Amino acid sequence: MLKKRERPTDSVPTNAYQKGYNRAVKDYKALEPFRKYPQKVINSFNKFVRGKMHALQDYVDGYEDAKQQLSKN
After folding, report:
1. At the top level of its lineage, which domain of life is listed (predicted)?
2. Which DSSP letter does residue 20 get?
3. Is the dihedral of CA 44, 27, 24, 54 positive or negative?
4. N or C terminus of the chain: which is more exposed, having fewer CB within 10 Å?
């Protein structure tokens, strides 16, 4: 049987945009190169599936926003 992944109970749930933003900050602080997401492809595909992939689009948008802000520094 598959074992369920346990989540910390004390953490505050975050939305996909914030998760993407936090990931970019984590990459920046760890001196790792920023990831490259095919943002145009994701946005186009999301329109094709009538918004059912909005969480992925929000994640990438958050990551890209943080990446732009951090790159200015």
Report:
1. Bacteria
2. H
3. positive
4. N
In a domain, 40, yes or no: yes
Mean pLDDT, residues 11-18 taken together: 80
31 occurs within a structural domain: yes
The pLDDT of residue 72 is 86
From residue 24, how far is each of 19, 32, 35 by CA, in Å?
A: 9, 9, 8
What is the extent of the structural domain holding 42? 14-72
The label of the residue with tokens 């996909």 reads: 16
- The answer to whether residue 7 is domain-embedded is no
Number of Cβ atoms within 10 Å of the Cβ of 66: 22
pLDDT in tens, 31-47: 999 999 998 999 899 99
